[in-house]
Specification:
It contains 5 helices and 19 strands. The chain has 289 residues and is α+β, with helices and mostly antiparallel strands. It has 2 domains: 130 residues, Diaminopimelate Epimerase, Chain A, domain 1; 118 residues, Diaminopimelate Epimerase, Chain A, domain 1, CATH 3.10.310. The strands form 2 sheets. It has a 17-stranded mixed beta sheet that branches. The protein has a two-stranded antiparallel ribbon with strand order 9-10.
Length: 289
């Protein structure tokens, strides 16, 4: 497949999290960051995450998946995107169990229906150098980071974790009371996060429920971030705010998160198929090879 040919894509969403899927299995092509940005710049193929399927690298997996954010940067995991591509591959194969590999590791999905897809998002990583942070913190349930005046910070003391991507969770009483568009970019790029971070505001609404808003690394304010829902859930359980089984309400809808006794994070939710399209070959004409 060359840049001279139009490339098919599928536009989907997971709770409003905009996903574009491109299947490049059987091809050696790999999109550059410039090409990903060019795809995102088109209204019809705009995405929060671009999920690109490549030939499997590990036996027993259906595809190796490269994940791009809107700005062309890579992501190690995307829960909503994984549900989307799992549903497509399940339709293609007739199988309910689908396995993918990303730079963040192996992801297994179980497809019951378009309204109920469960993804095993793997094990959370809490060590400071696994998140990663720029300096050692013995306790990652609450790190020294704040925004605003020292004596009256607007946001402070987030929990941090890596769930395929770095996440910082700020605990607040009302997630809608903060201007996340203003604070998100500053915190995403704070020097404490050498690989940047997803920034979430999390509100505990009961021992088994959370409300979350997220500024997504490389994508901005999003209606839903699956890995942020997982990160918020495990950090809430780890700090005693909730149990290990929670519903997470995002601006786009609800995800069900379970942190199992085997230290796995299971995320269940729906996806929506929007339309099939073709990427204009002109998108790639001026992008570096």
């Amino acid at each position: 497949m060359t840049s001279a040919h139009a490339i098919p894509f599928k536009k989907m969403n997971g709770l409003g999290n905009e996903i574009v899927m491109v299947d490049l299995r059987g091809s050696t092509r790999v999109f550059t960051a410039d090409e990903a940005r060019a795809i995102a710049a088109q209204p019809r193929s705009h995405f929060d995450q671009l999920m690109v399927l490549h030939d499997p690298q590990t036996p027993g997996t259906d595809a190796y998946v490269r994940i791009y954010n809107t700005d062309g940067s890579p992501a190690g995991a995307c829960g909503n995107g994984t549900r989307c591509i799992a549903w497509v591959v399940a339709q293609q194969t007739g199988r309910r169990k689908i396995r993918f590999e990303t730079s963040g590791g192996l992801l297994e999905a179980h497809v019951e229906s378009i309204d109920s897809i469960t993804v095993d998002m793997g094990k959370p990583r809490f060590r400071w150098d696994e998140i990663p942070l720029a300096e050692p913190f013995h306790d990652t349930t609450k790190i020294e980071l704040q925004i605003g005046p020292i004596d009256r910070p607007i946001l402070h003391s987030p929990s941090v974790v890596n769930v395929g991507n770095p996440h910082a969770i700020f605990w607040v009483e009302d997630v809608d009371a903060y201007d996340l568009v203003r604070f998100g970019p500053l915190l995403e790029c704070h020097p404490i996060f050498p690989e940047r971070a997803n920034i979430s505001l999390a509100q505990v609404t009961s021992p088994s429920s959370l409300k979350v808003r997220t500024w997504e690394r490389g994508a901005g304010l999003t209606r839903a971030c699956g890995s942020a829902a997982c990160a918020s859930a495990v950090c809430a359980a780890r700090t005693g705010r909730t149990g290990r089984n929670v519903t997470v309400t995002l601006p786009g809808g609800v995800l069900h998160i379970q942190w199992t006794g085997e230290d796995r994070i299971l995320m269940r939710g729906p996806v929506e198929f929007e339309y099939d399209g073709m990427l204009d070959p002109a998108l790639f004409t001026n992008a570096p090879a």
